[in-house]
Amino acid sequence: MAEAPVITKIEVQQCSRTIKDIGREPGSGTLTYLPGAEMEQSFYMTRVFTDKGIIGEYPLAADISRAAELMLGHSALERGFFYAEYARYPMNLLGGVDTILWDIAGKFHDASVSELLGGFRKKLPAYASTMNGGVTGGLSTPESYADFAQQCKEIGYTGFKIHPYPRPKLQDHIDAILTLGDRVGDSMDLMLDSFCFYRTFADALKVGYACDEAGFFWYEDPYFEGGSTEYGHRKLREYIKTPLLQGEKVHSIQQKVNLLLANATDFIRGGIPANGVTGTMKLAGAAEALGIDVEIHGSGPAQRHTMSAIGNSNYYEMVWVHPDVECLQMANDVYTNYADGLEAVDADGNVEVPDGPGYGVEYNWDYISKHSTGKVVID
């Protein structure tokens, strides 16, 4: 077997782009559709170089330059070592380093990350995951949510998830849920992600009863305590029929498994940015041992490759879609051969797993350079 590649240099290029008609809702600070507003979106285009000429590349949400001291001079294939070391640090550092190392491993072995993981699915069913509701536009009324769900169904989606806040009145949320159930509840899996918006157990319970009536597939992160209180969510499960999906707001694998063991959730949320590919596979195995499904958060090549190897996972999240706004994912600009977004599914509502070594994606370096706000090189 060829000698393992050793890490020789790390390059982190911070990039930023302006998104139109997206802003913070006055009075709540919630990100939503706001005609005329502008928002800056940033990411870290990261490259890890090795002495074998193999380069790991990925647009990360976190700056991993803090990890350079430990990474330089170390084998890029020893993902278990880095996972154990960075489990003691902020989780996005762990996830970022691990995500890059899997790209290197795939290129070293001339195989996709999916193949290295034992992936068996070439296509993944996707659900449309909406932006937050606004005070105007396509997600501002119960009827407009239902109209958009109908549009997504016609595109091919079989699942539809709403983020209905920042509506201050609880009844607005309930009306959106019931209207969706009436319109497409018999033909789509419907989900609610309240993003821990509801302030009391009572409000979370009322919304849960509405989800029951509308036949929702899951109810995600119900109330404001942050998705970590095991007792409260266990009690909520005793009153409502709709399954809970928890785990986005807790970061370590141990915390997520504790929610499962405490009977505080029905599905568990896995996250590539926080736990990397390695951690997400660990969580999937733990969940499988308990007979529970893991649902991966967000969109991207790493999410697709990882999900391809997980049998106990139902949907790929096509996140932050809206009838009036461009896709909030950077993929359509950063990549040249890959895209997420409302129209990025086939007629059956599936997305493909990229083919080729590593994550199998190519980058638009002209776009990245044009939107760079600074570069750090550590060698």
Can you walk me through this structure?
There is one protein chain. Helix content is 35%, strand content 25%. The protein is of the alpha/beta class. The chain folds into two domains: 7-111 and 361-378, Enolase-like, domain 1, CATH 3.30.390.10; 116-352, Alpha-Beta Barrel (TIM Barrel), CATH 3.20.20.120. Strands 4, 5, 6, 7, 8, 9, 10, 11 and 12 form a nine-stranded mixed β-sheet that branches. Strand 1 (7-24) and strand 2 (31-50) form a beta hairpin. Helix 2 packs antiparallel against helix 3 (91-109). It is globular, with a radius of gyration of 21 Å. The two termini are 27 Å apart. The model has no long low-confidence stretch (mean pLDDT 94).
List keywords for this structure.
2 domains, globular, alpha/beta, four-stranded antiparallel β-sheet, 379 residues, TIM Barrel, 13 strands, Enolase-like, domain 1, 13 helices
Radius of gyration: 21 Å
What overall geometry do the principal axes of the alpha carbons give? Answer: globular
Most strands sheet: 9 strands, mixed
Q: Which regions are unreliable across 5 or more consecutive residues at pLDDT < 50? A: none
Number of strands: 13
Mean pLDDT: 94
Structural category: alpha/beta
CATH architecture of the largest domain: Alpha-Beta Barrel
As a percent range, the share of helical residues equals: 25-40%
CATH superfamily of the largest domain: Enolase-like C-terminal domain
Distance between the termini: 27 Å
Beta-strand residue fraction: 15-25%
Oligomer: single chain
Q: What is the H/E order?
A: EEEHHHHEHEHEHEHEHEHEHEHEHE
Query: CATH top level of the largest domain?
Result: Alpha Beta
Note the total helix count.
Answer: 13
